[in-house]
Amino acid sequence: ENYAKIMGIHFPKLTLDRSVGIVSSIIEQKKTELFHVVTVNPEITMACQTDSRLRSIVEEAGLITADGIGIVMVSRLKGSNLPERVTGYDMLLRLLEAGNQKKWSFYFLGADPVTSEKAYEAISKTYPNVLISGRHHGFFTQDEEAGLVEEIHAAKPDVLIVALGAPYAERWIHKYKLKLNARIAIGVGGSLDVIAG
Ligand code: UDP
């Protein structure tokens, strides 16, 4: 089996390396359809038990990873070993490294305005060849949302990083999947706070 089924969710048995490889080749293929990556943490796993809408968002994703040591441990007990935990933060750092070599463009959505600015500064310093096609803090109103989606559409990023917290980010990406004009989108929780220091 290539999958481990844990709490009703089918996790492919992929290492961080393989997951990054899959996402990288999707970006390089330059398809127009958005590829949604969901790093399934304990919050998402629990919410999926009672929220069938969220469950279908996770099931529809192009790639899901096991972002919880508990999920990995349970897979081992069941004899359907997941190789390792793959977090949104790890994925983000690896995508920035790859993007720095391949000159991908990124749009950063989420975190508070100061964190967004600081993360932007840290990322442009560490990954100077990454194209930052835009960013926006994550405390926008309903009224501002359509304009924000248009801004992302116009920025046309290879990678849309959504740091709104889980599962808000996953719902948001899914809601605007057809309008974002990004190659891949991934929710990364509080990663921008970590990068901002
Ligand atoms: N956040 C946001 N908008 C909101 C709520 C949260 O941009 O309306 C940001 C928050 O500033 C933080 C991230 O989302 O940067 C959530 O991080 P958290 O660690 O709570 O999420 P998790 O890692 O648990 O998904």
Automatic annotation (TrEMBL):
Keywords: Glycosyltransferase, Transferase
Domain of life per record: Bacteria
Keyword Aminoacyl-tRNA synthetase: no
Protein name (database record): WecB/TagA/CpsF family glycosyltransferase
Positions spanned in the full protein: 2 to 198 of 245
